[in-house]
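Subject: two folds for Thursday's group meeting

Dear M.,

Sorry for the delay on this. The cluster queue was jammed most of the week, so I only got both jobs back this morning. I'm pasting them in the order they finished. Each block is the input sequence followed by the predicted structure tokens. Could you check whether the formatting survives your parser before we put anything on slides? The first protein is the one we discussed after the seminar.
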Amino acid sequence: MTKKISPITPGEILMEEFMKPFGLSQYKIAKDIGVSARRINEIVHGERVISADTALRFSKYFTTSAQFWLNLQSHYNLEIESEKLSKKLNFEIKPLDTSRLVLA
């Protein structure tokens, strides 16, 4: 039986792809982008989502796009919800029969 890997949080990406390679502390990032160290800590630990405000700040600081950060968050959210709801949705929602589509 294959063991499912847990979705990767945006905070894990922040830590592994940005903080560790550049030797950045949570405090340094927080200070440099004008947010609380608590905000960065909560993102790193998966306890806070990356908001549009944070995405814009990260994009400027790390010379990425804000969309990059928002996409990480959206992808994570979809993975989590999919795990929770997939069986329920398969049971409750019948796909629309598009074979009866009338083209004007």
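Second protein, same layout:
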Amino acid sequence: MDALLARIQAGLASPDGQSRLRAAREMEALLSDRLDEGASDWTRAVDALLTPMLAGLGDSEKGVQVHCANCLELLAHRSEAVIPALCAALTPPDGRQAWTAAFVLARLGLWSAEVGEALASALGAPDRDTRWAAAGFAVALGRSHPDCVAVVRRTLRSPNAVARKMAAYCLGAMGEYAHVAADLAERLADPERDVRRAAVLALNRLPHVDPAIQRAVARLRQDPDEFVRRAADAVAARWGV
């Protein structure tokens, strides 16, 4: 066991991405096997692997991030050291380690302001998979945590246009359980066409949209961008405007 843990540690510390990926895969297999065997003492594994697992959340290899996240989620139910360590990794909120730590905590159903800030930052991430993962977790957490809806509302005013677009998507889904039409209506005049289109499509998902907002969408039939015009025309027509 000790030799295997040492080999995994060395692999996770390797400068070679494929070596780190193999070690992360081996680590998840080891922990899964121990779980299947009904192991009750996880102290050695946590002591040996917690620090490299946390570092792996920010690895440049996406597969390493995934394996480390899965391992931390597994261990969070078996060691009191894991959740505080994940919470500490949320700061600063604007990097891969914080984003993936927030994803693990969200999968565990845990909310905090720091989780929200990391998810908001991840909505503007360069990587598409990261953005959509953050959106999914934000929508799920928002059902039971109104503060999460508030964080997404603030993100709708982010200087990052990609984050604004993703926030609009989230609010469209959150419309099942939150009043967000007025927030989305503000983005109909956004300087970025993708944000305007996202706001139109998000409003289309809401169970109720005031007539004044419906008319504002209809006016986007005159938008300079063809795709915004098409979206606005389709949505306004569905409303009979």
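Two things I noticed about the second structure. Residues 1-89 form a domain with the Leucine-rich Repeat Variant fold (CATH 1.25.10). The mean pLDDT is 96.

Cheers,
T.
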